[in-house]
Amino acid sequence: MLEIKNLHAEVDGREILKGIDLRIGTGEVHAIMGPNGSGKSTLSNVLAGREGYEVTAGTIMYKGRNLLDLSPEERVWEGVFLAFQYPVEIPGVNNAYLLRAGVNAKRRHLGLPELDAMDFMQLVREKAQLVELDPSFLSRGVNEGFSGGEKKRNEIFQMAVLEPSLAILDETDSGLDIDALKIVAKGVNKLRSPERSMIMVTHYQRLLDYVRPDVVHVLADGRILKSGGPELAQELDRRGYDWVREEAAA
Amino acid sequence: MSTLIQEVRQRGERLFERHGIPHTRLEHWKYTDIRRAIEPWLAEKADVSPGSGYEALPTDDVAFQGIDGLDAYRIRVLDGRVIEIPEALPEGVIVQPLARLLADDEARAARILNADEQASLFNGLVALNTARAQDGVVITVEAGIELARPILIQHMGHAQAAHICHALELGAQAHAMVIEHYETPEQTAGFTNVVSRVQLGSGSSLVHVRLQQESSARMHIGRLDVCQQRDSLLKSHVITLGAQTSRLDLVVNLNEAGASCELNGLYLTAGRQHADHHTVIEHRAPYCRSREEYRGILDGRSRAVFNGRVVVHEGAVGTDSEQRNANLLLSDRAEIDTKPELEIYNDDVRCAHGATVGQLDEAQLFYMKARGLDDSQARELLTFAFADEVLVRLDVSAVRRHIERLSFDKLPYAGDFDAMSLGLEESA
Ligand SMILES: Nc1ncnc2c1ncn2[C@@H]1O[C@H](COP(=O)(O)OP(=O)(O)OP(=O)(O)O)[C@@H](O)[C@H]1O
Ligand SMILES: [Mg+2]
User: Fold this and answer.
1) How much distance in Å is there from the Cα of A220 to the middle of ligand 2?
2) Residue B96: inside a domain
3) Domain containing residue A112
4) pLDDT score for B188
5) Helix, strand or coil for residue A31?
6) Closest residue CA from atom 2 of ligand 1
7) How far, in Å, CA of A7 to CA of A23, rounded?
8) Cα separation, B364 vs A93, whole angstroms
9) Which of B199, B234, B256 lies at the terminal end of a domain, its last residue?
């Protein structure tokens, strides 16, 4: 599904990613953990194609194509989805409208007929249930006045509607209380499928208790220092990151 | 003509001679030069003899567009003459053409026409209006009357000068909504000079919409004067889309305790349009509240001016005032001059103001692209949303939709308003 080789990327002329290698098979769920400022969101943004995140070396192949050739929206149409760490508020732009425009752009790209308003509303109502999102949120401005937890739930809801092949969840568990975390995790698990790969960026073991990853990576100082199974996350939770750094330096 | 009206007219002429056409050396006209463009429209000496106001005017070559789905009491004004008033009005609501008052009730007509020295100093064309306005709409809503349907004043004009003088009086506890709608056939030149004087009795409330979508070859000069008594409420919506050059002076006098006003404004300019809005809010009494938000979207080589002055007079304790002006520049050749002015003459006040000028927000654009929208679609939506934030405060949905559609069509994008609003309506 995704193959990243020796990826270097800069923001504002400062190198943040310093040679990332990462391979994610179809249907796999990978967790990326790592200290603050280590480059996790930078990697997410590079994958989503954000302006200002400049790739200076390396390659990213997605479904056998060079991902870096695609514009952000083309990536969405081809099945890449980023759930933002900090979803922006867009007052005045209606949630449902934004999503319908996105879904229909994707469908046009795939040569499918566009969804009319009725079909679309039926689809979103269904998906809203998945994350127990009150449908009244749909008629509000995008993330406008949403609580932190509501914003995160909205991200997962949008993912459910757009049905990506590769989902990148950047700290979707942060800022959630335990009930909200369970709801979000339940939603993510429902979206897990043999055709869908996921990258979950997280600081906490808790999420991984609910959504068991196939592989756990430690990203620090712009590199992946260690990879392992779910038990690695537990060890990180207990021991922190320093030992990984020391081990890598040794 | 009676001597009373004659005196008022002459006073207008004298004031106009003294102050003349505003020029750019005046502080409040620094960025708006109308002198050359206005010249041809001044030569024309209007006929100021009083008439019924209903004489036949050519109407076959102009089409009043109206507002779809709006159920309103309709008044039509063509070339500065009132040509239609509603046949049946509720008890306690009186609509008269000023032309008739000039013949029937000189004292009142004189009061309505009379330009004050201060207004003329600010804009000499107000005095010219006093000298030349032949007609206008005089609306009286008596105490305690609650008008369920809005009053719509439609303006249409040929390529000529129209001096129009409106008056609106709400008695105590009266409630009404009035829409001033200005349109002229595309490409025709001409000059509109309109003054509206509004009196709000105690406890009354008025929703006032001023939609200007005149031809982009026309000059539009307007003044809206509001005097508010105790606990009265004004909600004003100014939407400026049309005219080559437009200027609006909106002056609100919060004369008695507890009066409040909410001023919403939106100007969209393109090509070589020039739109100038000057607003003044006079806090003259204790515990008055004012809220003001004007937004502008400028494209092409257009230019806009916003000047918002708030004066808190001595004794106006407990004043609560907020003012904002936000501008979006879609082109690097467009230009905005914005200036909030705050004058405070006592301590016990809460005032906030701010002005911003910017481009579309990068983080918001990226978010939308990350949901599958292409660049132009994302820009279109975001720009429209910027405008819509002031339009959503307009409570009458037919009027809001009409204005949203006009605004959307004016934006330089290819999108389809119906497709977009479908999502809005259904999810609402
Ligand atoms: N737009 C930007 N401009 C300048 N510096 C940036 C920008 N985005 C990220 N950085 C810097 O890049 C580094 C990595 O940031 P990044 O957001 O990728 O970290 P992170 O691993 O996601 O951290 P966290 O766990 O706190 O979310 C930090 O030092 C950050 O300050
Ligand atoms: Mg991060």
Assistant:
1) 12
2) yes
3) 27-49+71-249
4) 87
5) strand
6) A11
7) 12
8) 10
9) B256
